[in-house]
Design a protein that fits this description.
single chain, mainly beta, Thrombin, subunit H, 5-stranded mixed sheet, 2 helices
């Protein structure tokens, strides 16, 4: 049984003032706790770290596993699991399994960050591999891909460059739409980037100096840059950190700023630190301590969301089939582990869902959501639930 509120409560709204470019909040809407319907299917196959699930038209699902470094196609009815592609640097091969981007129809794109190549799939077949030698990939250069839209347009993040083309250190990234067929890049919006955050990526322990026995201090990596989710219909959701809100960008139109979802920043207390530390240890088995005095690098306020640790391109956003966006929240003393916000294209938090501590959302289908369920040994299995 999910740790959810098993009823729908009426959302109370008083009103919103709308301008042509922004939503101006005049009041707060109370979000609706929702529960998932019982699972419609599950897969006995064992995974280690699922980072992407993509439902195909025939009901099968593509699944990418980062730690196993594999892509498979699975039939949840028969339980049959078949490899897709293979590791390597040749045609149809990849060096690192990563999230799967829906490009419309049965088309899927996977960005292999370690080798800067893109796998294009039609159904369960790899039909093309774009390498750094490809003209389109040369045009992308070192830009950071956020996803794809129908028609194969890429959504990219780029930094300003000097006259010689070298990246300049800056506090912003710029969001672009890139048409691979024409080579055209259109500016969409600007993001608060990783370079603008004060939180270090962390991971390696620091040690105290001197000749005496030293104590390890683990740096907590809470990277909280703005995040982008690309939808197959050409819409973009941009989740903003400060204040926490979601802006929406329709195809060929200006982006519209959403109202603040949490208007005030919550100071990072000892209770918040402990809640986050406990959740990370359960999910990632890192850091190897539950003692706050053995940690450092905490932000002064609790971010609404962070880049998910232990996952390549670990965006906390998941585009839903009904046009809304799902956002994984940071556990704190006031937000339980496993909490997700559901935000509409008006920028309003319509609902929230709370999964068990060993569960997380990993993909979406036309009328379904996929959850990775981890057991005590760290093995993950895939489960499908009807949605909405």
């Amino acid at each position: 049984m999910h740790r959810l509120v098993h009823r729908r409560t009426r959302r109370l709204c008083i009103g919103l003032s709308i301008s042509t470019a922004t939503w101006t909040p005049q009041f707060v809407c109370a979000q609706v706790p929702v529960s998932l319907k019982p699972a419609s299917a599950s897969l006995a196959h064992e995974f280690t770290r699922i980072v992407g699930v993509r439902e195909l038209r025939d009901g099968r699902v593509l699944v990418s596993d980062e730690k196993e470094n594999s892509i498979v196609v699975a039939d949840l009815r028969s339980g049959l699991v078949t490899p897709v592609g293979r590791t390597g640097r040749g045609p149809g091969e990849y060096t690192q399994a990563a999230p799967l981007w829906i490009a419309g129809g049965d088309s899927t794109v996977m960005y292999d960050m370690s080798s800067r190549r893109y796998l294009l799939l039609d159904g369960a077949r790899v039909v093309q591999t774009l390498t750094p030698a490809d003209a389109a990939i040369k045009s992308i250069g070192l830009d950071l891909p956020f996803g794809v839209e129908a028609g194969g347009r890429f959504v990219l993040g780029t930094v300003p460059r000097d006259a010689s083309g070298r990246p300049r250190m800056t506090d912003s990234l710029y969001v672009l739409r890139f048409d691979r067929a024409t080579g055209r890049k259109d500016s969409v919006s600007r993001l608060r980037s990783v370079m603008m955050t004060s939180e270090a990526a962390g991971g390696a322990p620091a040690t105290a100096g001197g000749g005496a026995a030293t104590k390890k201090v683990y740096q907590i990596g809470m990277l909280a840059p703005d995040q982008v989710a690309a939808f197959p219909d050409g819409w973009l959701a941009i989740a903003r950190v400060a204040p926490y809100r979601v802006d929406w960008c329709a195809p060929g139109a200006r982006c519209v700023s959403g109202p603040p979802i949490d208007a005030t920043s919550q100071p990072m207390t000892e209770r918040d630190k402990q809640a986050y530390l406990d959740a990370r240890r359960r999910i990632d088995a890192w850091p190897p301590t539950n003692k706050l005095e053995e940690t450092a690098g905490w932000p002064s306020t609790v971010p609404a969301f962070v880049v998910q640790t232990g996952i390549t391109e670990g965006s906390p956003l998941l585009p839903l089939s009904d046009g809304r966006v799902l956002i994984a929240r940071v556990p704190s003393s006031s937000v339980p582990s496993g909490r997700y916000d559901v935000v509409s294209r008006k920028g309003v938090r319509d609902a929230h869902i709370t999964l068990k501590e060993n569960e997380r959302f990993v993909g979406v289908g036309t009328q379904s959501l996929f959850i990775a369920v981890q057991n005590a040994d760290g093995v993950e299995r895939l489960r499908r639930h009807p949605w909405p």
